[in-house]
Amino acid sequence: MEMMSIPVITILCYLIGEFFKVVILRKKKRYKYIPTIVGGIGGMLGLIIYYVSPDLLFNVTSPFLAVAIGIMSGLASTGGNELIKQIIKKREKEDAS
Fold it and tell me: Could you state, in chain order, the average pLDDT of each consecutive group of 10 residues for the chain (97 residues)?
């Protein structure tokens, strides 16, 4: 069960980031706030998981580490989004050729 908490935080943050992009932050100028939003949400999720069951975050010993793990997991969702965008862009270029 220990290995599931980090990917779950990352996936939840990715989905929340996509939700913000589609529903709330409709203008592309505001997309720059998404990493901050998902990082903050990841930190909150890390803290919630720490207080519910610290064993899920690799036996973290302090809430500060739980928040740090959550923030990094949230920011990793932004990297995952960029990876997906680059793959789609590459396929579009190959199809156009």
Answer: 72 90 80 89 92 81 91 90 84 77
